[in-house]
TrEMBL record:
<dbReference type="Pfam" id="PF10280">
    <property type="entry name" value="Med11"/>
</dbReference>
<dbReference type="InterPro" id="IPR019404">
    <property type="entry name" value="Mediator_Med11"/>
</dbReference>
<dbReference type="GO" id="GO:0003712">
    <property type="term" value="F:transcription coregulator activity"/>
</dbReference>
<keyword id="KW-0539">Nucleus</keyword>
<comment type="subunit">
    <text>Component of the Mediator complex.</text>
</comment>
<protein>
    <recommendedName>
        <fullName>Mediator of RNA polymerase II transcription subunit 11</fullName>
    </recommendedName>
</protein>
<dbReference type="GO" id="GO:0006357">
    <property type="term" value="P:regulation of transcription by RNA polymerase II"/>
</dbReference>
<keyword id="KW-0804">Transcription</keyword>
<dbReference type="GO" id="GO:0016592">
    <property type="term" value="C:mediator complex"/>
</dbReference>
<keyword id="KW-0010">Activator</keyword>
<keyword id="KW-0805">Transcription regulation</keyword>
<comment type="function">
    <text>Component of the Mediator complex, a coactivator involved in the regulated transcription of nearly all RNA polymerase II-dependent genes. Mediator functions as a bridge to convey information from gene-specific regulatory proteins to the basal RNA polymerase II transcription machinery. Mediator is recruited to promoters by direct interactions with regulatory proteins and serves as a scaffold for the assembly of a functional pre-initiation complex with RNA polymerase II and the general transcription factors.</text>
</comment>
<comment type="similarity">
    <text>Belongs to the Mediator complex subunit 11 family.</text>
</comment>
Length: 137
């Protein structure tokens, strides 16, 4: 079940409405308990508050589940409109691989240069050894 696309402002308004519903849930529960604490509670009043409590709580649960589902999709990188999380993660990983490749190329370049230097020293020593006349013992 996918959630219809909506802007961040729509999401914030939805969360604001959920918050108001939570306040209504608490208020309904408080009113029901207040009525029950009376010496002679009015059953119809208690039932009305409990019904309001249940209805609003069900709405809160449904709306929060939708929001959690959306956030789960965003955090797992599933494709959906309005999020660049997956693209950002892909870019971040590509940049990390590029940095690693650059570091490795620089290390290989240093090894190559050291090897060339050693080879040049060996050739120079070889040339110097050929130019010197043999020494008598």
């Amino acid at each position: 079940m996918s959630m219809p696309s909506s802007s961040p402002m729509d999401r914030l308004m939805t969360l604001d409405n959920i918050e108001k519903d939570i306040a209504t849930v608490l208020q309904s529960a408080g009113q029901a308990l207040t009525e029950l604490s009376k010496d002679k509670p009015a059953n119809k009043q208690v039932e009305a508050h409990v019904a309001q409590f249940r209805q609003t709580l069900t709405n809160v649960e449904t709306e929060l589940a939708k929001q959690i589902n959306y956030l789960t999709q965003v955090s797992t990188g599933q494709a959906h409109e309005g999020s660049s999380y997956n693209s950002q993660k892909t870019l971040q990983m590509a940049m990390h691989r590029l940095d690693h490749a650059k570091t490795r190329v620089n290390e290989l370049e240093a090894i190559k240069n050291k090897h060339i230097q050693i080879m040049q020293q060996h050739q120079l020593q070889k040339q110097q050894g050929m130019q010197q006349p043999p020494q008598a013992l």
